[in-house]
Each structure stands twice: as structure tokens, then as C-alpha cells.
């Protein structure tokens, strides 16, 4: 994609989409996104901007007509909220998918966008921000930026602590990320403690043999493996494979099951043959 060099009027401050430093180039496709240089533009394009470029225009265009009626204003606000919620879902899902693929650097722009839109919709202290913090934390761990990961996870943990009715699923993901962080720092005992918390909350939410719980067992096995405690690691790896085998076996059975078909042809085939059965 091509870029426009910027010459900002006095008093106008345009900031880079990724680092929030002064911007000097503009996306020529949407014209509402700015960057400090081509490196950040390329990173944003590969991470998320290609998917949301045109979707940003109605959200960032300020020259909207004045609407005199309350009904019209409410309709416009509802449309804006709908677009924002769609952007949260799209950017968060994209960031999570990139994490699964091991593309940690590309996951960062997507997670940052999801965090921005979540703040716009829910405010700075909402539990709805935590999934974005967790993606940013895990991506930072994968990139070896542990101090940055610690900041994101500290923010997520503080938000969870301030939310008494926080769901067990969110807590499980938080503790899993903390376990990964401590493992990356070489603090294996604290890592195991956090992963045990992850498994506890995941088991409460999904059950002990669910594949969503097995992730905690897998990361715990990795820690024991690094400690050369192979007997424990092997038993945990076995538990993970058993959970996935059971899960995949159920899927195969469902998809290969032959559907039951009534005998005969047409509506008469579904009618009772014995008139007494109708009574």
C-alpha cells in the first residue's frame, strides 16, 4: 500500500497507531490512520489494519451532520456502538488466532486495537479489557519482552481483583499467563503455583477432563520437564493426550454417525400404523 507524508498544521498532533509517538505518514486507503514510519505501518498492516482499514472510516470521521431529533441521535449512537462492538470482536479474535499460530509480533497490533475499542465502550476499569491485556501479555512473553508482559498482566490482575463477580474462565486465563511469565523468568515454583490456580478455575468452569483445562496441565508439564522431573512431566503429558483423544473421538463419532431414517416414503412413513397408538 502507498503512504502519504504528512505536513501537519500548527497545533494539530497526529500520533502513530502503534507507539503513540508523532506521526509523519498516513494510510492512503482510509486516511484516518497515521504512523511514525514505514516499519510500524507495515507491522500494523500485517497484524490487523488490512482487515479493518475501511471499517475505521465511519468510526474516526468527525465531520458528521448535526441531527436535531433525539431519535436520530440515538440511532446514530446505536450504530456507532454496534460498529465498536464488532471491532472489538474482530480484533480480539484475530489477535488470539495469531497467537495460536505463533505469530506474536503480528498479534500485538490486533490486541492493541481491541484494547482501545474496549476502553471506548466499557471504560478504563472494566473487566471487558482483561482479554486484550492477556493477549498483549502472552504476545510479549513470546517476543521475550518480559517486563512489558509483566505490566500488561499486572493491569489484568488488578482489574480481576477489583471485580468480585469475575468469571472463572477469565481467572483461569490470567493465571495461565502468569504461569507462563514466571516460567520464562526461570521462577519455576511460582510458575507451578500459578498454573495450579489456572487448573483449579478451569476445572470449576469446564471440568477436569475438558480440553480447555488441559492447557494448564500441558504448561505445567513443560515446567516439570525443564526441572528434569520427567516422571511427573510424562504423567501430565499423558493426561493432556487422553483429554484430547477423548474430545476428538467424540467429534469423530458424531460426524460419522449414520442418521436414522424412517421406513417408507413420504409423510405416511411418520404416521403410527396402529390406530390404538393414537388413542
Q: Explain this structure to me?
A:
- It is built from 10 helices and 3 strands; from the N terminus they run βββαααααααααα.
- The chain has a 3-stranded antiparallel β-sheet with strand order 1-2-3.
- The protein is globular and about 65 Å long.
- Helix content is 64%, strand content 3%.
- The C terminus is likely disordered.
- The protein has 279 residues and is mostly helical.
- The N and C termini lie far apart (74 Å).
Structure described in brief:
With 279 residues, this protein is mainly α. 64% of the residues lie in helices and 3% in strands.
**Helical segment tally?**
10
Shape type: globular
Beta content comes to: under 5%
**Structural class, please?**
mainly alpha
Q: Helical residue percent?
A: 55-70%
Number of distinct beta strands? 3
Order of helices and strands: EEEHHHHHHHHHH
The strands making up the biggest β-sheet line up spatially as 1-2-3
| N-to-C CA distance | 74 Å
Oligomer: single chain
Which residues form runs of ≥5 with pLDDT under 50? 275-279
What integer value in Å does the Rg equal? 25 Å
The average pLDDT score comes to: 89
Question: Largest sheet, if any?
Answer: 3 strands, antiparallel
Keywords, separated by commas or semicolons:
single chain; 279 residues; mainly alpha; 3 strands; globular; disordered C terminus
Summarize the topology:
Layout lengths: L2 E3 L19 E3 L6 E2 L2 H15 L3 H5 L9 H31 L3 H19 L7 H13 L3 H16 L6 H18 L2 H19 L4 H16 L3 H27 L23
Helix pairs in contact: 1-4, 3-4, 3-5, 4-5, 5-6, 5-7, 6-7, 7-8, 7-9, 8-9, 9-10
Amino acid at each position: 500500500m502507498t503512504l502519504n507524508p504528512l505536513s501537519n498544521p500548527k497545533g494539530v498532533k497526529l500520533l502513530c497507531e502503534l507507539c503513540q509517538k508523532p506521526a509523519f505518514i498516513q494510510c492512503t486507503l482510509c486516511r484516518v490512520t497515521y504512523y511514525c514510519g514505514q516499519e510500524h505501518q507495515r507491522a500494523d498492516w500485517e497484524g490487523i489494519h488490512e482487515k479493518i482499514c475501511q471499517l475505521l472510516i465511519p468510526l474516526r470521521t468527525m465531520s458528521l451532520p448535526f441531527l436535531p431529533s433525539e431519535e436520530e441521535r440515538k440511532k446514530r449512537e446505536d450504530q456507532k456502538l454496534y460498529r465498536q462492538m464488532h471491532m472489538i470482536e474482530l480484533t480480539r479474535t484475530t489477535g488470539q488466532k495469531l497467537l495460536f499460530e505463533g505469530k506474536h509480533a503480528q498479534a500485538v497490533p490486533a490486541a492493541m486495537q481491541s484494547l482501545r475499542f474496549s476502553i471506548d465502550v466499557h471504560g478504563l476499569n472494566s473487566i471487558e479489557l482483561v482479554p486484550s491485556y492477556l493477549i498483549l501479555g502472552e504476545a510479549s512473553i513470546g517476543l521475550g519482552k518480559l517486563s512489558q508482559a509483566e505490566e500488561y498482566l499486572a493491569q489484568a490482575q488488578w482489574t480481576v481483583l477489583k471485580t468480585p463477580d469475575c468469571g472463572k474462565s477469565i481467572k483461569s486465563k490470567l493465571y495461565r499467563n502468569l504461569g507462563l511469565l514466571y516460567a520464562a523468568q526461570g521462577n519455576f515454583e511460582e510458575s507451578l503455583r500459578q498454573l495450579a490456580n489456572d487448573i483449579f478455575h478451569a476445572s470449576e468452569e469446564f471440568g477436569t477432563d475438558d480440553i480447555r483445562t488441559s492447557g494448564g496441565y500441558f504448561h505445567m508439564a513443560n515446567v516439570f520437564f525443564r526441572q528434569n522431573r520427567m516422571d511427573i512431566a510424562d504423567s501430565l503429558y499423558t493426561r493432556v493426550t487422553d483429554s484430547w483423544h477423548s474430545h476428538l473421538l467424540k467429534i469423530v463419532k458424531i460426524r460419522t454417525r449414520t442418521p436414522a431414517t424412517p421406513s417408507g416414503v413420504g409423510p405416511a412413513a411418520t404416521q403410527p400404523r396402529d390406530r390404538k397408538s393414537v388413542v
